[in-house]
Amino acid sequence: MRTWVRSGISTSGLYRTIANMTVVHVLDDYYLAITLLITVAYQLFFFSIAFSLKFDKLTDFAGGTNFVVLAIITLAFSGHHNARQIVASLFIMIWGARLSAFLLFRILKTGKDDRFDDKRDNFFKFLGFWVAQMFWVWIVSLPVTLLNSPKVTRFQQPAFGTASDIAGVILYAIGIIMESVSDIQKYLFKVQNSDKSKICAKGFFSWSRHPNYFGEIIIQFAIFMIAVSPAAEGFVHGGARKALYASIIGPIFLTTLLMFVSGLTLQERPGAKKRYENNNHWEEYSRYLKRTSILIPFPPQLYEKMPMILKRTIFLEFPIYVFDPAKHADVGQGQHDAEEGRQSHLSRLRSRNHWLFIFVTVVNANANPPPHSAPPPSSRDFHCRVRSSWPFIPVPQPLVIPTPGKSVVSVKGGCIEGLDWAMAKHIWVKRAMVPIPEGAELLEEEPEHAPYICRTTDLGENGNEKMEAGAA
Question: Is this prediction's pTM over 0.85?
Answer without folding.
Answer: no
